[in-house]
Amino acid sequence: MPMVKIVSPGGWDFDAPVAQMIKIGSRGLIGNDRGDFIKRASHVFLPFIDDIKVASDEVPVHLIALGASEAYGPNRNGDGFKEATCKQCYGTFEKFARFYRNHKNKDPQKSYGIVKKAAYNDKMRRVELLTLLNATKSAADRNGGYIADREIEKLARGDDLAVSMACRVPYDVCSWCGNHAASKEQYCKSASCKAGGCTDNLTRLVKMGSDVHHLHVDNPNPVWFDISDVFRPADRIAWGAQADWLGKAASDGGNWGMSGVKAAEDLGIMAPINVVVYQDQHVVLPQWDRYTGEQVKLAYGLDAVEKKGMAENPEARRAFSADVQKPFDFEKFGMDGVHPEKTAAALGALADNKVILPLRDFAKLTKRAEAADAASACMKGVYGRMISDGSLERRIRDNRWYPGEKLASGAQRTAAAMFKEAYSLDRASVGTRSVRSTVRGCLVPESKSTFWNEKQASDNPQAEELARDYAVYKLAALRRIAEFDDDFMLTARLSVVQNQVA
């Protein structure tokens, strides 16, 4: 269950402003301006700075992003990045990150600048960035985004920017006991960690023998996707004088601030799907198998389909109405919801025929038929809610209704083939049922789904639980179907249409 974290350069003491304008004239970076830049950034950017074309409508800014923990220690929020990690992952700033405001990073077209170059400064042992802020509308149009007027004005006055960054990490590692955690819930506790555990003591100064240890977590393989000017820093995340946070640490028993993952949760920050796909392809997650990763990507895709209205097809809803789909006959498959191996084999045979049970029948199988109507109303946005609260990966791993990989019995395979026309997501079967509904004079089913918010979900926990169980069953079935389906994009959209019909 990878975590998203907020990390602030202000959490380290670099003895220099985090962000500073680079004075590049029409003849390039020369004279005293060149000397001043070398003093700040050493020679790390010089091989690039003369070759990088900076347009007259862009403002180049040098930004100190993060320091290697061997040289600077962890930041005050308990996150450390080893030197090898900094050298390995700084390039993701160039690949994914843009300059935003207040971490509103879902749409690159609402950014205020780009990361032109990222580098690791071996002499200073830190990651540094060359960013280009949009100074005029022409730059904003070219780079995509808005004019960074407030940022440029602050830098021109010599003020520092309250910058923080977001990254996604597959897991982090306790600096004392070495516990690997893919979520806050997996953090070590005092029973297993002599430093008191990251659950309760993360960011604290802990006396260990004759020494003091700043308990923190190391973050292997971060993918950086956001740099933001934070105009209203949350809980001192973005910046503050060193004396400020040291004073706070002393008065708080050595606690230097909230964790980076807590800050990201409070701000509701999620990693974009391209970051998820990239990281899952390049990083081996100890708690993931290939199937889990594929289902996570599917969930992001289905969430996007819903939000963009790509499955709003009233006529297609006809194919999933009870008018043309009789109640599912579980007896033909020997499915009783009690014998998991037989049920899993049957669900696998159905998936091989592109059949995913309707919610109303899934509710009967799982002995929750009375909650089906309410669950139908909250299907829309269910993937987004699980992504947002961090429960998606855990639910995928704990899914009880996973189509079995073991070959189903001959009787089950025969029965599944018989149900194909009535239940399949196959293009031809859906078309046949839609025509049949029209010929019979049936009304187009109304969409039962509306986007639920967290309060609605908490007000009806039984419906929400059923909706989430059905959603992860559907992910597992779709993952299996994707292995052989040449028309999978349509199949996936039709599976969202299916959710709209009670």
Can you give the mean pLDDT?
Answer: 85
Major sheet attributes:
8 strands, mixed
Number of domains: 2
Q: In which range does the helix fraction lie?
A: 40-55%
* Percentage of residues in strands: 5-15%
Poorly predicted runs of 5 or more residues: 233-256
Structural class: alpha+beta
Shape: elongated
Helix-strand blueprint:
Layout: E1 3-7, E2 19-21, H1 31-41, H2 46-49, E3 58-67, H3 69-72, E4 79-80, H4 83-89, H5 91-96, E5 98-101, E6 113-121, E7 126-134, H6 137-143, H7 149-156, E8 163-169, E9 172-174, E10 180-181, H8 198-201, E11 205-208, E12 211-214, E13 217-218, E14 223-229, H9 242-251, H10 260-267, H11 273-282, H12 290-307, H13 314-317, H14 340-351, H15 359-365, H16 372-377, H17 382-389, H18 392-397, H19 410-418, H20 420-423, H21 427-439, H22 454-459, H23 461-482, H24 488-499
Parallel strand pairs: 4-13, 5-14
Antiparallel strand pairs: 1-8, 2-3, 3-7, 5-6, 6-7, 8-14, 9-10, 9-13, 11-12
Helix pairs in contact: 11-12, 12-17, 12-23, 14-19, 23-24
